[in-house]
Amino acid sequence: MAHQSTPSSQKALMMELKSLQEQPVEGFRITLVEESDLYNWEVAIFGPPNTLYEGGYFKAHIKFPVDYPYSPPTFRFLTKMWHPNIYENGDVCISILHPPVDDPQSGELPSERWNPTQNVRTILLSVISLLNEPNTFSPANVDASVMFRKWRDSKGKDKEYAEIIRKQVMSTAAEAERDGVKVPTTLAEYCIQTRVPSQDRSSDLLYDDLYDDDMEEEDEEEDESEMECYDNQDDSGNEDS
């Protein structure tokens, strides 16, 4: 197996993957790009109901460094996204993914940046929050930021931003159909936790052989902090689609 010199990052990623597949974050589906590579994950994101992204099927890659969790992963959308905090190449600009260095120019506090207690679950929740509530103070896409502010400040009367998002959402339907995925459009469907069926038992055997004790502790912690469904979606202007 690759990366034999970094078993601690492999172990951390294996435990996180297992946790996310057994107790998924609502609105996300996680798989490995290749079964043998724990450092590259594919994420499918379903647009939350009652937002501009409702009905959307967005794909992204998470790429982990070999010293994870001490350094943050990168999160890149493969689907074309028009958003104040997403670069043209799909890279997401979000504080939680920035290394924990003291950079007064950025306007970010070190506490807002990456630290080893963060994990994929917190990244996913930050991304879904960012989609609905962009940060316009340090935009990665200035034009999208200006357009979003016009839409927000006009309470949805300036429809240019909303119409671009809607077109992007509609354009994802073909890919969802190709992948055989039914995109949730109601809150009830969105809140169903979708477990990804294992392709075979080989990855399970890896977990079972090496990390049974660790996973029991992990599962107990997860049970205590069960995620609530992301149901506070109504923003002013969102009803105008």
TrEMBL record:
Q: Which residues form the UBC core domain?
A: 8-174
* Xref: CDD domains: UBCc_UBE2R
Task: Please give the PANTHER family that the UniProt record associates with this protein.
Answer: UBIQUITIN-CONJUGATING ENZYME E2
Q: Where is the active site?
A: C93 (glycyl thioester intermediate)
**Which keywords are on file for this protein?**
ATP-binding, Nucleotide-binding, Phosphoprotein, Transferase, Ubl conjugation pathway
Name the residue ranges with Acidic residues bias.
Answer: 206-241
Which residues does the annotated region (Disordered) include? 196-241
Reactions catalysed according to its record:
S-ubiquitinyl-[E1 ubiquitin-activating enzyme]-L-cysteine + [E2 ubiquitin-conjugating enzyme]-L-cysteine = [E1 ubiquitin-activating enzyme]-L-cysteine + S-ubiquitinyl-[E2 ubiquitin-conjugating enzyme]-L-cysteine
One GO term in the molecular function aspect is: ubiquitin conjugating enzyme activity
Name the lineage: Eukaryota, Metazoa, Chordata, Craniata, Vertebrata
- Classification via InterPro entries: Ub_conjugating_enzyme, UBC, UBQ-conjugating_AS, UBQ-conjugating_enzyme/RWD
Q: In which pathway does it act?
A: Protein modification; protein ubiquitination
Q: What is this protein called?
A: E2 ubiquitin-conjugating enzyme
The record's Gene3D superfamilies line, in alphabetical order, gives: Ubiquitin Conjugating Enzyme
Q: Which family does it belong to?
A: Belongs to the ubiquitin-conjugating enzyme family.
Report the Pfam families cross-referenced here.
UQ_con (PF00179)
Which residues span the membrane? none
In the Enzyme Commission scheme, what number(s) does this protein have? 2.3.2.23
